[in-house]
Design a protein that fits this description.
Layout (H helix, E strand, L loop, with lengths): L7 H24 L8 H13 L2 H14 L5 H31 L5 H10 L7 H22 L2 H24 L15 H13 E2 L11 E2 L4 H24 L14 H17 L7 H8 L1 H17 L9 H25 L8
Parallel strand pairs: 1-2
Helix pairs in contact: 1-2, 1-3, 1-10, 1-11, 1-12, 1-13, 2-9, 2-13, 3-6, 3-8, 3-10, 4-6, 7-8, 8-10, 9-10, 12-13
Length: 351
């Protein structure tokens, strides 16, 4: 008899989905020009934006945990995973291309539309699809390396990812000292992808569990501490850089997903889910929301824009209250719309 799957990955996926929506509800407050960075209005947007910034890293880490923990025949992996991604991606890219044409008159021709699918992203939130495709292409090589990697090799990989993604960028931006060495394997989201596998398989929380292999003990307070430090450092660094060091357009560097402050929060949320999201079996609505999460990611911007046309938008009242309320409204309405699409013939293929 097969062991029931742990519920925490589905719950973490649901959390990350809601967090993405909250980013899009709060970011216009935190990112807008001409803000008074000492106002409670901006600090409210800054808080929600900083708290939910780990959303995309969580998706990448969860993909790494679920994919790299299993061996798939290459042909089967490419066929199943790319079908799962490319069919809905192309459908929604075409939807957003038409949406952009209606709103802005561009793309104006079929050739421009097809070119936009390749150069992307068609709409601001669809950049994530290009990221996922790149990680899927790297899966066969990373999986082969992981099977034989030692603990020291894992940590060497993470150290190099930290330096090449964070240190390299900081040297170029802040010290005007770009390095000439190309660190292709260790840059961008590869660290999150492999990190999700490592944390998901080797982090333990019981003191009586043996630390065999690559396992390491995680104190119960550590996830909360990382979430607090990640959120606080994102908020504070964003305030400092815009108040004391930058004049002109808002500097959103510390909101970037590939920063140590956001990574700290992402690790905290991931460990918290692994530790605390297994208390009870999944409810049907949790399972359905998780199954619809890909479609919700695609469609929520359309629902958010529609709400904006109706007057429900990020600045209609104080953002400390509006951001979570608007997030809940958009999440529920988009889930309902995607659930209806999924019961139609072929609907599950595009969501």
């Amino acid at each position: 008899m097969k062991k029931p799957l742990d519920p925490w990955p589905d719950r973490l996926r649901n959390l990350a989905t809601v967090m993405v929506i909250c980013i899009h509800a709060a970011a216009p407050i935190a990112h807008s020009a001409g803000q008074d960075y000492n106002s409670h209005w901006w600090w409210a947007g800054n808080f929600w934006n900083s708290l939910t910034r780990p959303a995309v890293p969580l998706f990448v880490m969860l993909s790494g945990y679920l994919l790299l923990s299993k061996d798939y025949p290459l042909s089967d992996f490419l066929k199943r995973r790319f079908t799962r991604v490319m069919i809905p991606a192309i459908f929604w890219m075409l939807i957003y291309s038409f949406y952009n044409y209606l709103a802005h008159g561009s793309p104006a021709t079929v050739v421009e539309t097809l070119k936009g699918l390749v150069t992307g992203p068609v709409h601001y939130h669809l950049w994530f699809i290009y990221l996922i495709i790149g990680l899927y292409l790297a899966y066969p090589f990373l999986r082969g390396w992981i099977r034989g990697a030692t603990k020291q090799e894992f940590w060497f990989f993470f150290i190099m990812c930290n330096f090449c993604t964070w240190g390299y960028k900081m040297m170029a931006m802040w010290l005007n000292m770009p390095m000439g060495i190309y660190f292709e394997l260790f840059t961008n989201n590869a660290g999150y992808f492999v990190g999700g596998y490592y944390l998901g398989n080797f982090a333990i929380f019981r003191k009586d569990e043996p630390l065999d292999g690559y396992k390491f003990f995680v104190p119960g307070y550590l996830p909360w501490l990382l979430i607090f430090l990640g959120t606080f450092s994102t908020m504070t660094a964003s305030y400092i850089i815009n108040t004391f060091f930058w004049k002109g357009q808002p500097d959103v560097y510390f909101y970037d997903y590939l920063t140590p402050n956001v990574a700290m929060g992402a690790v905290g949320w991931f460990l918290l889910a692994k530790r605390s999201f297994n208390g009870s079996p999944l409810l049907d609505i949790e399972r359905d929301f998780s199954a619809a999460s890909f479609g919700i990611y695609f469609a929520h911007v359309l629902v958010m824009d529609y709400f904006g046309q109706l007057g429900f938008w990020h600045s209609m009242a104080h953002p400390f209250f509006v951001s979570p309320i608007l997030t809940a409204m958009i999440a529920c309405m988009t889930f309902l719309a995607v659930a209806i699409i999924r019961v139609l013939p072929g609907g599950d293929k595009i969501t």
